[in-house]
Each structure stands twice: as structure tokens, then as C-alpha cells.
TrEMBL record, chains A, B:
Residues 8-87 form the GST N-terminal domain. This is Glutathione S-transferase family protein. Pfam families: GST_N. Gene3D superfamilies: 1.20.1050.10, Glutaredoxin. The lineage of its organism: Bacteria, Pseudomonadati, Pseudomonadota, Gammaproteobacteria, Lysobacterales. It comes from Luteimonas rhizosphaericola. InterPro entries: Glutathione-S-Trfase_C_sf (IPR036282), Glutathione_S-Trfase (IPR040079), Glutathione_S-Trfase_N (IPR004045), Thioredoxin-like_sf (IPR036249).
Amino acid sequence: MPPILTVFERSPDRGRGLARDMRVRWALEEAGQRYEVRTVSFEAMKQAPHRARNPFGQIPSFEDGDLVLFESGAIVLHLARRHAGLLPVESVARERAVMWMFAALNTVEPPIVEREAAGYSERDRPWQAEHLAMLDARVRVRLDELSRHLVGRDWLERDFSAGDLLMVSVLQRLGGTGLLDHTPALLDYIARGTARPAYRRAFDAQRAQFERATVP
Amino acid sequence: MPPILTVFERSPDRGRGLARDMRVRWALEEAGQRYEVRTVSFEAMKQAPHRARNPFGQIPSFEDGDLVLFESGAIVLHLARRHAGLLPVESVARERAVMWMFAALNTVEPPIVEREAAGYSERDRPWQAEHLAMLDARVRVRLDELSRHLVGRDWLERDFSAGDLLMVSVLQRLGGTGLLDHTPALLDYIARGTARPAYRRAFDAQRAQFERATVP
């Protein structure tokens, strides 16, 4: 039996590929693995059956036989260790690729998600613009640092890895904010990632799910 | 040669064990491994020699022969895979422990760090109290979810693992905020973690470093 990935029935990003199941779909496609999908509504996501898979009531979760995992980073790492194509074989290079997975999720993503959250949760506050300017400055520090690291490189290390997969997907959340305009190296990097055939297949699959859920 | 851990010369938490090198020290002590320490000042942390170890100019970094790593989560995972005592041997349990490492760093820590950042960066804004109340509500959602998961358990899964090590260290950042008062299960959980002899040794080592740096 193929593994089961639990995803939004109807992603709040309207199929733009920003929900966290996209990372797992992309990893599965890079690894050439089939999978099945279970959809959950926003209500079901917070109820007991899904909380048994993920106590935080989030997507994605992943089931493969006895193994039940949540956290997109953990699922991508599980797949990357099990299948070729997402981590180098040589041990130092492999550890460095895993390091970039953590950097994407614990250093680069948090200020980006924070900025996004302020965008909707503070919409009716008179101080939103002032706060967003502070958050933008924090995001820019990370973008500049990452951009300097990528000078003269196609990927974070020599070869594409699960670290790039997560980093590209984190940076994509900034689409439409204008924050990437000052770091063309990051725009090129995102373009290299999203041009991969595995990315396209994953993107099309999540888009098709959104479209199925919104048929009139 | 023992590995080298780069830490703050003088931690901004004044030796309370909240800097991210503490996680790595704790993991090294659980694994029974010796290590050496290199200290960096706030200025040196942002300059080229340290940026070569970590492009984001943060601590900790870790060097062991050919291997240079940054990101506390990645370093802890590296140690946990290499030495006994931090991950179960059986494969499903092992994957679940790694999953909790990601949950600590990508689901639980971000709103906690955000709240902390608002505490100092918005100190002179008239809207700080209103914003902190919003952030507190977000942190409480995660604390309640985690607390429900811990009912009847000593650790996140059956045995103590690197997932607990990171989760306890993330929750400790809430000390003094009052946010843990409504989740006694989490206070007990933190107390279990910090009572471990390996934690105490790591704590004492980082405290001694702070004291050495502040000798009059």
C-alpha cells in the first residue's frame, strides 16, 4: 500500500502551493514514490481523529504502515533518508544538507510566517503598518544573509537536496510582498527549484485537489 | 581531538541557560562526549570568520574534523544519531523522536520566540500590550495542545529523547512570563527534563562561562 498524506480539503492559499503538504508532495515526487491523499476540512483538522495523528491539529500528516508522522520537515527527512535523490550519500555532505533543512525551518521561516500572520491578524489595528515595517526589516536581514551565501552557487551546497526543497518552499511564501525584489539571487534560486519536474508534478497535484474541492 | 562548540562570550540571558548552545551542551552530556568551547563576542559573531561557520551569524556552531555545522537542531540530531542515549534504536520510535525535534523547533518555538522579540523590540510602542496579548493567545493554543498530549506521560513518547531535550529547552524560554501557570503538566515536564544529571552538568558549564566573562 502506498503511504497516505493528509492535506487540506480546500487550501486557504487557493492552490498556490504554499500549504505545507506541498513540501512532502515535492519530496515524494523527487523520490519517485506514489502516495494517496486524505483530505481534511478546517473543522475536521481540529477534531479527535486528526488530533490523534497530529496533536497540534495541522496538516500534513503522513502514514506508512506502522509509522505515523506529522511536521513537514520530519516527513521530508524521513523520505530523504529512505529514498535516493534528496540527500548526498557522502556523510559530511549529508549532514550539511540536513543542517539546511533546519536552517530553512528554524531560522528563515519563522520571521516570514510571522510577517504573514501580522498581515491578516492585525488587519484592523491602526499600528499594523508600523509593525509590518519592523517585521520586514527582520525578514530582510535573513534574505540578505542567504543571498550572500548563494553568490556563485546554484544550490545551498554542491547538489540539490532536501535542504533546498524546504528553503525554496519557505521563500515562496514571500511571493507578492516585494521583499524578494532586492535579492535577485533568491528569485533565481526559487526559479531553479520550481523548474524541477518533480516540483511541477507536485504543484499540479495540489492545484487539482483545490479545484476538485471548489467545483460549483 | 574533541569537537568545538562556538558559544556567546557573554550570553544575553546572563547564564540562565536559554542560549541555543545549551541544547548542544545538554546533548553532548547525555551522550557522554567531551567538547571544547570557542567564545565569540556579539561583534565577532557578525564578522567574516564566524560567518564562514554560519552565514546567519548566530551561535552555536559545531566543528568536528571535516564537519562544520550550525543550527542547534541539526547539531543535536547529528549527535543523537552518532551516540547512544538520545534516540530510540527501533525505527518507528526513532522517526517519532525526530518528528518531535521538528515539532519543538517549527511549531512550538516560533510563537514563543516571537513573543520574546515583541517584549524587547516593541518596548517603546504604545501598542505593545495589545500586541503581546495577541501573541500570548497564540502561545497558549500550543501549550494547551502539548499539555493534552502529555497527560499520563513522562515524555513525548515512551522514553526520553532528543525530541524532549529540544521541547523542554523551548518551553523554558517562557520562564517568568506566567504563561506556563495554566499548564501544570508542562511545568512538571520541564522539571523532569532539567532534573537530569546531563542537564545540570550542561547548565553549570554555560553558567561558568558567563561568570568567567563577567569577572570585574
